[in-house]
TrEMBL record:
<dbReference type="InterPro" id="IPR040198">
    <property type="entry name" value="Fido_containing"/>
</dbReference>
<dbReference type="InterPro" id="IPR003812">
    <property type="entry name" value="Fido"/>
</dbReference>
<feature type="domain" description="Fido">
    <location>
        <begin position="91"/>
        <end position="228"/>
    </location>
</feature>
<dbReference type="Pfam" id="PF02661">
    <property type="entry name" value="Fic"/>
</dbReference>
<protein>
    <submittedName>
        <fullName>Fic family protein</fullName>
    </submittedName>
</protein>
<dbReference type="InterPro" id="IPR036597">
    <property type="entry name" value="Fido-like_dom_sf"/>
</dbReference>
Amino acid sequence: MFELIDQKKARLDSKRPLPKYSLSSLREKLLLEWTYNSNAIEGNTLTINETKVVLEGITVGGKTMREHLEVINHRDAITYVEQIVKNKEPFSEWQIKNLHRLILKGINDEYAGVYRDQQVFISGAKHRPPAPFLIKEQMENLINWYEQESNQLHPITRGAMLHAIFVGIHPFIDGNGRTSRLLLNLELMKEGYPPVIIKVENRLNYYEALDKAHTQKDYDDSIQLVAKEAEESLDLYLSAVE
């Protein structure tokens, strides 16, 4: 499945270090698209152009404070992901809580970075997240899986499964989707991949793939969806340097 992706990744690696201004421009483009799509999947009504002006510090009339904060917070969370990658910090539960804290900052400070104490349901999904008293154990199991088993997997498989398992646990009251996509890209960026953008127009396929992973423990559709987007991001980067 990954032969072509591996070839494109090797081509990109051979071009490193990438041109400074091309890299900066690509980062800006993907930061915007990642922020817009990840928020739109969760119901944020800002358009991509409105998201762009919010990132530039301008308020958009007729939109809620929460929608503005979701953009600013997501940008800050991406910056934190980049710092983790740059510093080569090992994956940890502490990082997950920090990412979530950034996502909900000023939106729901009481639950920012704090595991939920109530039962939640995923709208439209067959899967029911675990009861609150099971979250700590399941998050520990996720970390153990990551540390003991996931290093044998291709980075795309590892990232897609980390993302899907985390969403299945749904450890927080709110912000699980955004946090999960940050974790997916954190994993890929550690391995030198550009960020992948799960697009809002693919939301139905995305939700169905996740529900299949949660109810049948079949991650193939999730992995293929991430692989497709990873190849698209690689193509974008290669178009800038070849």
